[in-house]
Amino acid sequence: MSKVKVGINGYGTIGKRVATAVCAQDDMEVVGVTKTRPNYEAKVAMDKGLDVYVPDSSVKAFADAGMPAAGTLRDLYGEADIIVDCTPGNVGAQYREEYADAGVKAIFQGGEDHSLTGISFNSTANYRESWGVQFSRVVSCNTTGIIRTLYPIDRRFRVQKAFVTLVRRAADPGDSKGGPINGLEPSVDLPTHHGPDVQSIMPWMDVSTMAIKASTTLMHVHTVAAQLEREVSTEDVLEVMKASPRVRLVRNGSGIKSTAEIMELSRDLGRSRGDMYEIVVWEDGVRAVGNMLYYYQAVHQESDVIPENVDCIRSMCKLEEDARESVRKTNKAMGIPN
Ligand SMILES: NC(=O)c1ccc[n+]([C@@H]2O[C@H](COP(=O)([O-])OP(=O)(O)OC[C@H]3O[C@@H](n4cnc5c(N)ncnc54)[C@H](OP(=O)(O)O)[C@@H]3O)[C@@H](O)[C@H]2O)c1
Questions:
Q1: How remote is the CA of residue 236 from the centroid of ligand 1, in Å?
Q2: Which of 209, 237, 258, 265 is the residue whose CA sits 20 to 30 A from 47?
Q3: Over pLDDT 90: what percentage of the chain?
Q4: pLDDT at position 29, please?
């Protein structure tokens, strides 16, 4: 069977990771990535053997820098079955029409609105909704994090209402422009957009959210309080979490007290770029009291959505009908425990 040809528009935090993950699969391949600037990231991409395509307006800059492009963005549309749009938030929307005109499928990221595609994606909760469609959207890192744990808990115990506080990283580690560098910045537009974003995939879920931006680059941390339909035990909840795809339990008692040790763990695991694709839940921080459930989870914003992008390609390109099988394949190729 021939491999699905994937083009990646935007080769930043998410785009470069999607490229690595797609290259690791046996049923898809990267036919090109795009950059607007001929900087060090473009050079590394070329050195890795990736074909770098550029917008028309960047052709001269790349030629002047002695880094001739493989072609223009439009050339890439002609090479690809599907584009994974990893341009900055709200930029992807500007490309939707181009993708439509070129007749190429496209996946957008969480920085775009759900209304851009009308379909949003999570591997476990709604894989089949993107089956064969032209456009879909992988929800943001935080929304993916909330759905990864809340969906299996809802399936088993029925969540009546959930409340999540997100402590958000201020910038990605490779970003020297973001902030705050010393302060905690509450989002005052309440409740925050994350609840409605979860509902783009789980419309029945009564979930509301608040968020605080914190002076850290490593990960986000969520505190989750969920009211369940019935009384449950902490052990029952842990059993569900242990069986949930791409959820990793760690113990504060084993020395993993913060996001710093989680990042050290992913480096020790030898993960590409030190990434932690799983949502990390502190096992000894899970507590059920009556029908209330409380837990903490950490989200590696740079990488948790990457396996979902691979599964979304499989669903949109009709490569694998069974969600669990796609998740299994992606996990195996990326070194995520099944
Ligand atoms: N970073 C995260 O934590 C995270 C997590 C989940 C989802 N997301 C979402 O993923 C998307 C990408 O975010 P990111 O963090 O990867 O962004 P990023 O690191 O800023 O990378 C953006 C890339 O897009 C390119 N680009 C900029 N303007 C462009 C344009 N007009 N046309 C084509 N390419 C353009 C940039 O290329 P040049 O450098 O050459 O200009 C860069 O390679 C956003 O929707 C974001 O909300 C981000």
A1: 40
A2: 265
A3: 100
A4: 98
